[in-house]
Amino acid sequence: MSSPLTQSLQSEGCLTYTPRRPLIWTATVIALGLIAACDTPGVTLVDPDVTGGEDRSWTITVFLEDADLAAALGWSNGVPGATVSLHRLQEEFDLLTGVTDSSGQVRFDPMLPGQYRIAAERVLQAGETGPTGGVLRAFGDGVRVWKDSTALDLHLRADRRGSLVISEIRTTGRYGDASWNTYDGYQYFEIYNNSDTTVYLDGMLWGRTFHYLVEAPASSCAGSEPLRNDPAGIWASYFHQFPGSGTEYAVAPGQSILVAQDAVDHTVVHPNLPDLTVADFELEGPADVDNPEVPNMPYVGLASLIFQPHGVLISCVLNPCFLAAAADPASLERTPYPSNLEWARIPMEAVIDVVSAGIWVPAYDRIGNPCAIAVGGDMDRLEYPSYPIYYDPFLAFQRKVLRVSAQGRPILQDVNVSFVDLWEGPRSPGSIEH
Predict the structure, then answer these.
(1) Where do the domains of the chain lie?
(2) Per-residue pLDDT tens over the stretch 291-302
(3) How far is CA 187 from CA 145, 175, 294, 336, in A?
(4) pLDDT tens digits for range 149-177
(5) Torsion over CA: 403, 406, 409, 412 (sign)
(6) Superfamily of domain 58-158
(7) Which of 149, 177, 245, 374 has the largest count of CB atoms under 10 Å?
């Protein structure tokens, strides 16, 4: 119900609004500034000029990083048909999207100043695969950037098949009953062998990377740059290690491996939750719910798990998650940041895969402006937006299927841009179904 002051302004034609949410306080603030004008004879209210006479457009041109492939495809001057998506930080998650024209350009107008997340993706059509030997390829790029000009170039990286990839992630979330309880126990991640050769998990590391990723008093982006954007490796303090002495845990081509936070039947908590007793591994923690039938992944990180008693949270949201080749944790170089918290550097040549998702809601962005780069070595250029998945336990982050091999195995997309590599789909722990 509107206040008498608001009703008075409406009756004078000074204020109108559509009541979508409680706006009384907004109307009152506006009214305090306008009441004098409404009551003063000879005063006419006009719309303010918010353009300032400047060009607020943004023309984005999309190129391929691989100049030779671009030439073969006829895309040297720009990539046609690429989908470009923009999100202005501190605003509700509502993507602006456009498609590049024949010259590889798309124009957005008008655009407000500020910091943006921008991603671009292009997947070859069947009739375009001649230069790639008939192989379907994908290309992507992602950046966080301030709008300080009217033009921006994006350079799409080509997919790389690689070996092991993180193929599915279920983070913490609510499970949808009337109490809206948040529950961590049913988190899991899945690893998929995207190659044609058998790979052994023995001794590999999985964990979460450096997490000081916003401009904040305790850690500025300039101060964290050496650890966030280190070309020699990625830094981590929370990580587990797969068991095995070298050749005990084989992953065949096209095989999926399921790692659970707790490898138990979570349907006893709520029927909407998964039964993870089928997991291949489970994380080990100081107060773990242990399934003796499932091998443990010991915690070998540097930070205390006092707030993560069941092992490192499988939440690749506040910072990226990584998979790395077998290593002796004691041999890794260490450094403290910002004070006495120690971080270990995983050499870049040992990093196998990195994925990340971000909380794209205004409240999170207002904590501090995100730093331009979350992880170095071009391992993941832009996170996938994660907010909706928090409310639906039936969804999971899944890596897209790009094509199918001659042997009938799915080949998953990996351009090192989580924004374009991942999507939200029905959870399928332990298998590639979508």
Answers:
(1) 4-39, 58-158, 164-401+409-426
(2) 999 999 999 999
(3) 32, 12, 16, 29
(4) 999 999 999 999 999 999 999 988 777 65
(5) negative
(6) Transthyretin/hydroxyisourate hydrolase domain (2.60.40.180)
(7) 374
